[in-house]
Amino acid sequence: MSKKELRKEVIQGRMALSEQEVSSKSNDITKAIINMEEYQQATTIMAYVDFRHEVQTGELIRRALNDGKRLTVPLTDMEGKRLVPSLLKEFPEDLTPGAYGILEPRPECLRPITPGELDLVIVPGVAFDEKGNRLGYGGGFYDRFLPQTGKDCIWLAPAFELQLHDSVYPDQHDCPVHILVTEDRIIKKVR
Ligand SMILES: Nc1ncnc2c1ncn2[C@@H]1O[C@H](COP(=O)(O)OP(=O)(O)OP(=O)(O)O)[C@@H](O)[C@H]1O
Ligand SMILES: [Mg+2]
Q: For residue 171, how far is its CA from the centre of ligand 2 (angstroms)?
């Protein structure tokens, strides 16, 4: 199997989940994350905004804003092939559909910060192995973004169990995440 084939297979598996399964598993994952020290100690967070049966992040975003965290969401700069973290004040009012139809900050709500300010990044992905290796959508956006964060920044990926595979065919440029949180378990990489 190749990266491309695995991507297709896992996306299909995720799309086959019912809306109810997606939200109930997402709830379990969100609860686990907010109970973690890594979340509680984080001041500045970037969280992806879910689309098409990704683990939902809406509750986590609301919770972080409520907890007084500096919560950012990524703006996708297609031309520059990069992600820009932007501080969110009102969720979802500050957002509008952007690249790929994913919600991102409206131009008038754009409040960029530098990646070095982040303590925790909630990373999306298609498939993962138990070492934290990550297969994304094929744009290399997170592989270029994550190395710009500080050395103590934690990269955490929420994922459904069905997204875990024995191998995700990592390349040299692929950035493995430090923590995986599924509906059943927390997998941490020794740092
Ligand atoms: N650090 C990097 N610097 C330059 N190019 C990169 C880097 N990381 C990845 N790329 C390029 O991006 C392309 C896609 O990479 P890859 O297939 O790993 O994407 P992905 O991890 O699935 O996507 P994403 O990170 O957006 O979720 C590759 O052709 C790769 O050469
Ligand atoms: Mg990659």
A: 7
Its pTM stands at: 0.97
Contact 140, 173 (CB under 8 A): yes
Q: Say if CB 154 and CB 113 are below 8 A apart.
A: no
Pocket of ligand 1 (CB under 6 A): 3, 135-144, 171, 173-174
Confidence of residue 56 (pLDDT cuts 50, 70, 90): very high
Q: Which residue segment(s) compose the domain that 161 sits in? A: 3-188
The predicted model gives 6-30 an average pLDDT of 98
Atom of ligand 1 nearest to the CA of 147: 1
Q: Compute the distance from residue 29 Cα to the ligand 1 centre, in Å.
A: 26
| Shortest-distance Cα residue to atom 6 of ligand 1 | 140
Distance 148 CA to ligand 1 centre (A): 14
CATH number of the domain where residue 158 is located: 3.40.50.10420
* Total of domains in the chain: 1
